[in-house]
C-alpha cells in the first residue's frame, strides 16, 4: 500500500525548510527530494545499503547543494531510493525495493538516481536532486519521461555527497517543467538572472546519432529544425566525434584492444576505448574510497551490484596513469573542437545499452 502511494520512491520522509522569509525567494513554494547520497544534518546518509546506514552516524552538516535549495525557499520532503553505492544503472534495490516507473510501470526506472526521478515523474515533488557519474541522472530521466540535467564536473559542489568516482561525480537535478529546471540550475550554479546568450555554434555528433535505433527524422532532423528556428542555420555544425577523439587523444591506444572486447554494436572503436578507460578509472577510484569498508563489513549487496563492487575492489592500478593522460588529452581535444572564445554546445546521444523509452523490464 505504501509503495502504491509514493511509487516506492522514498527511503525516508520528512519536511525540512528554513525559516520562512518575508521576501519572495527564487524557489518559494516548491518541494523537492534528495537522493540518499547527500548529507542532511541529523540524518544518516544511507548510500542505498542498510549495512552502510548501520555502520555510519548521522551527518553533522548539510551538503551545500541541498542548503542552497533550502536557502532559496524550497522545502525538502525526504530522501529517495538509489542503487547501492551508486554502482548500477537500472534503479533496482534488493533491500528497499525498486521504485515504480510512473511512465512505464512494467519497466525499471533507471539508476542510480531512481527514486529521485520517480518522485518527480509521479508528481510527489516539484523537483529533485540526484548524482550523475556515468549517466545516473540522464538515464532515469529518459526512462521516466522527465527532464534531467548533468552539469559540468565541478560546477556544483559535491561536498557532503558520498563519492563514487570523483573524477566523474556531479550533482544533477530533475524536473517536469523546463522553467523549474532552469530555476534550479540558476540557484545551484549561482547564476544571475540574465537573458539567455545566443550560441555561436551547435555541433551535431553524427556518428553518435547513428547509433540510435530511432529514425533520424525523429531525432537529428527535429533538432536541427529547432536550432535553425531559434538561432539560425549558421549555428549548426557537424562532426564525427570518434575520428576527432582518435586523432587528438593518443593515449587511447593503451585501451584500443580492451575497447574492441567491450565494443557494443557499431560504436566507433575510439569511443569504445574511451569508455574502457573511464570504467577503469572509475573502478580504481571507487576502490580507493570504499575498499576498506567493503572488506571489513562484507555487506549484503544485491545481484549485479555485488559482482560489480567486488570487481572494483580486486582491480589493480595498471594503466591508471594512462587514464589520467586520456582525461587530460580529451579535455584539450574537446576544447579545440568547441572553441574557447565563443559559446558552444555539442549535442550527442548517450552511449548506453538501453535507449530512452526502452528500459529493461523487471
From TrEMBL:
Residues annotated as domain Amidase: 21-177
Q: What is this protein called?
A: Amidase domain-containing protein
Keyword Membrane assigned to the entry: answer is yes
Tell me which family the UniProt entry assigns to this protein.
Answer: Belongs to the amidase family.
Question: Cross-referenced Gene3D superfamilies, in alphabetical order?
Answer: Amidase signature (AS) domain (3.90.1300.10)
List membrane-spanning regions: 332-351
Q: Which GO terms describe its molecular function?
A: hydrolase activity, acting on carbon-nitrogen (but not peptide) bonds, in linear amides
One Pfam family of this chain: Amidase
Q: Which UniProt keywords apply?
A: Membrane, Transmembrane, Transmembrane helix
Amino acid at each position: 500500500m505504501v509503495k502504491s502511494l509514493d511509487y516506492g520512491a522514498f527511503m525516508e520522509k520528512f519536511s525540512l525548510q528554513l525559516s520562512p522569509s518575508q521576501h519572495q525567494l527564487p524557489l518559494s513554494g516548491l518541494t523537492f527530494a534528495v537522493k540518499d547520497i547527500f548529507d542532511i544534518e541529523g540524518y544518516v546518509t544511507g548510500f542505498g545499503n542498510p549495512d552502510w546506514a548501520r555502520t555510519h552516524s548521522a551527518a553533522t552538516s548539510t551538503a551545500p547543494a541541498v542548503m542552497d535549495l533550502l536557502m532559496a525557499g524550497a522545502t525538502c520532503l525526504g530522501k529517495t531510493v538509489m542503487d547501492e553505492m551508486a554502482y548500477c544503472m537500472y534503479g533496482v534495490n534488493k533491500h528497499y525495493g525498486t521504485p515504480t516507473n510512473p511512465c512505464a510501470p512494467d519497466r525499471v526506472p533507471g539508476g542510480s538516481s531512481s527514486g529521485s526521478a520517480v518522485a518527480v515523474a509521479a508528481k510527489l515533488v516539484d523537483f529533485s536532486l540526484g548524482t550523475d557519474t556515468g549517466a545516473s541522472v540522464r538515464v532515469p530521466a529518459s526512462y521516466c519521461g522527465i527532464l534531467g540535467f548533468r552539469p559540468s564536473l565541478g560546477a556544483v559542489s559535491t561536498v557532503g555527497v558520498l563519492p563514487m568516482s570523483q573524477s566523474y561525480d556531479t550533482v544533477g537535478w530533475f524536473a517536469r517543467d523546463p522553467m523549474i529546471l532552469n530555476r534550479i540550475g540558476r540557484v545551484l550554479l549561482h547564476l544571475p538572472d540574465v537573458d539567455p546568450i545566443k550560441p555561436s555554434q551547435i555541433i551535431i555528433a553524427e556518428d553518435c546519432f547513428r547509433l540510435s535505433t530511432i529514425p533520424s527524422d525523429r531525432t537529428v532532423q527535429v533538432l536541427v529544425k529547432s536550432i535553425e528556428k531559434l538561432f539560425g542555420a549558421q549555428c549548426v555544425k557537424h562532426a564525427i566525434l570518434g575520428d576527432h577523439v582518435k586523432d587528438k587523444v593518443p593515449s587511447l591506444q593503451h585501451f584500443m584492444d580492451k575497447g574492441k572486447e567491450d565494443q557494443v554494436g557499431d560504436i566507433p572503436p575510439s569511443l569504445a576505448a574511451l569508455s574502457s578507460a573511464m570504467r577503469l578509472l572509475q573502478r580504481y577510484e571507487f576502490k580507493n574510497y570504499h575498499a576498506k569498508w567493503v572488506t571489513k563489513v562484507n555487506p549484503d549487496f544485491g545481484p549485479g551490484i555485488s559482482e560489480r563492487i567486488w570487481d572494483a575492489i580486486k582491480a589493480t592500478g595498471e594503466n591508471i596513469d594512462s587514464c589520467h593522460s586520456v582525461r587530460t588529452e580529451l579535455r584539450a581535444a574537446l576544447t579545440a573542437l568547441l572553441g574557447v572564445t565563443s559559446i558552444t554546445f555539442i549535442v550527442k546521444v548517450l552511449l548506453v545499452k538501453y535507449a530512452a523509452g526502452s528500459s529493461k523490464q523487471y
